[in-house]
Amino acid sequence: MSRVFAIGEKYRERLEGPLAALGVCALWLPDNPNVDTRLSGHADLMLLDLGGGRVLTYLDSLPDIGLDVVKVEGQGRAYPDDARLCACIVGRFCIHDFRISDPHITGFERIEVRQGYARCSTCVVDEGAIITSDAGIAKAASRHGLDVLGIRPGYIELEGFDTGFIGGASFKLSPERMAFTGRLDLHPDRARIEAYLRGRGVEPVYLTERPAFDIGSAVPLTVSAAAGISCP
Predict the structure, then answer these.
(1) Per-residue confidence at 104, pLDDT binned at 50, 70, 90?
(2) Is pLDDT of 225 > 60?
(3) DSSP H or E segment with residue 126
(4) Rounded to an integer, what distance in angstroms lies between the CA atom of residue 214 and that of residue 156?
(5) End-to-end CA distance of the chain, in Å?
(6) Are 225 and 18 in contact (CB under 8 A)?
(7) DSSP class of residue 73?
(8) CA–CA distance, 40 with 46 (Å, rounded to integer)
(9) pLDDT digits (tens, 9 = 90+) for 131-188
(10) Is there a contact between 203 and 197 (Cβ–Cβ < 8 Å)?
(11) Domains of the chain from N-terminus onward
């Protein structure tokens, strides 16, 4: 078994080199034609890993890499219909606006919020901790016993929009490493974010020297083979 990270092909030029240098295996996803072109490379709008090798996706196909792939329908171009798979799984919990969720998202304790872009809004530190600028997510997650670092919104780039989100600009490489697409030097809560991560035994890794930018995160997949995947 091996671990790969599903990332939008749109970000390959920026991230392939840094990821390869870290020994990270990437599955580059084609642009999603169902959504706004500004979000077409966002992996968290294209697929959701439910664990146990089961993956929900709007894509017509994925490489045969040992996954139980469930093709789902119903994604729309505009919010909230583009966000039906953008749920955030944290341990036994799933955070999402379940009024819009795809019905295949089952098997978790629900944390109900009014944020369809829950995954993009949430940096999952470990099974018991998250970082978010979304006050509704922070309140609901805390109420369910999760440890939450609330930060100020903004300071994450997203082309075509005023701002992106920290969950979309980060993903967990391993239990001890959290990747950020770029640096947090301009974020007023940078020191708090780094201290929080290190307090949970996680070291931040900055993939580029540019300011952090939202890519719709990277979806980690546990697979039985690496056919069709670009690996270092």
Answers:
(1) very high
(2) no
(3) strand 122-126
(4) 7
(5) 16
(6) no
(7) -
(8) 9
(9) 999 999 999 999 999 999 999 999 999 999 999 999 999 999 999 999 999 999 999 9
(10) yes
(11) 2-223 (3.75.10)
